Amino acid sequence: MEFECLSDDVLLHIFSFLEDGLFLLDVVPLVCKRWHRLAREPDAWRGVEVKEEDLYNYDDHDMARLVLHAPFLRHAIRYSFPEGSAASEALRRSGVVAREFHCCCVGMDHDFRDDRTAVLDLLYRSRHYCRRVSVSVTGPGGEDTSDSQGRSALQVLASLRALEDLDLYNCSNGMFPYAGELAAGLPRLRYLGFFMDVFPEALMADLIRGSSATLRALVLFGIESLAPSVEESLSRCTELADLRIWEGCLSQVCRCWLPSLRRLSVTFTVDGEDDDDALDNAALFGSILDRCTRLPDSLRKITVKALGNTGNGRLFREKCERLVSSFQRRRPRVAVCVP
């Protein structure tokens, strides 16, 4: 079958497997007038990604052309648009929308407020399409960040009603104002990650509570304990199957009784040099397993990670192996992984 016989929809589907945006810009349109027209359709760009390694594959001019002319990106990463570059300027002028966007901090430098604004403009334009976001809600100094229409980062985040995966950071490493922008939650959210214990209690509670009907996976990285309102919100997550927490939250999680929980990852910090330290750290490991016996019967896998020096590594491992064997006699259907 010749390409001329294929319908526009079939050709667009074929083009959607292309990941190289410059190929769509510079090569596909040269084939014929029909391909030139189809190469401008958003559906043709559904597979195009702008990744961190593209900083080395594309020069600044090519990246700027790509951002300026692309109607749609499957995945974009903030580091591909260095502050002050032509690509960053093109981002401010473009109308591109993205299905996935990664930006650990909205702007990595105090002097580039315009770049943070451009990122939030992109996210707001993408509010009906965006499925996955990794972003900070503040600038590195904790200063307010807003889009070109004055919407704060939290207001832009609340507008992403199609969002399914969210990793949330706070680049200021300090608390920031929260006025209930996320009180309604995100209705399609399936995965939520909080990274570091520097988020307002009400924000965490609102996001978890508002997404409790759909939430399947939750990460609470570096959070040593849960505020009562967060614990109450977590108890509503009846569909939650995958949970990653710090050891300090474990007793509160046991109280929540999550009926669909299948995978639990618990991280605890250790600091040791000798045999006595190894035994103390192994005892903490054992207390984690003891508390896990109170978790629902749906549980199938526990991963326990020790961060730091355990002391005598051989002694620590031997003691932990005996503790795992004892635990599995009580909960034989639960696999225990100790990386």
From TrEMBL:
<dbReference type="InterPro" id="IPR001810">
    <property type="entry name" value="F-box_dom"/>
</dbReference>
<feature type="domain" description="F-box">
    <location>
        <begin position="8"/>
        <end position="46"/>
    </location>
</feature>
<dbReference type="InterPro" id="IPR036047">
    <property type="entry name" value="F-box-like_dom_sf"/>
</dbReference>
<protein>
    <submittedName>
        <fullName>Uncharacterized protein LOC117645047</fullName>
    </submittedName>
</protein>
<dbReference type="InterPro" id="IPR032675">
    <property type="entry name" value="LRR_dom_sf"/>
</dbReference>
<dbReference type="Pfam" id="PF12937">
    <property type="entry name" value="F-box-like"/>
</dbReference>
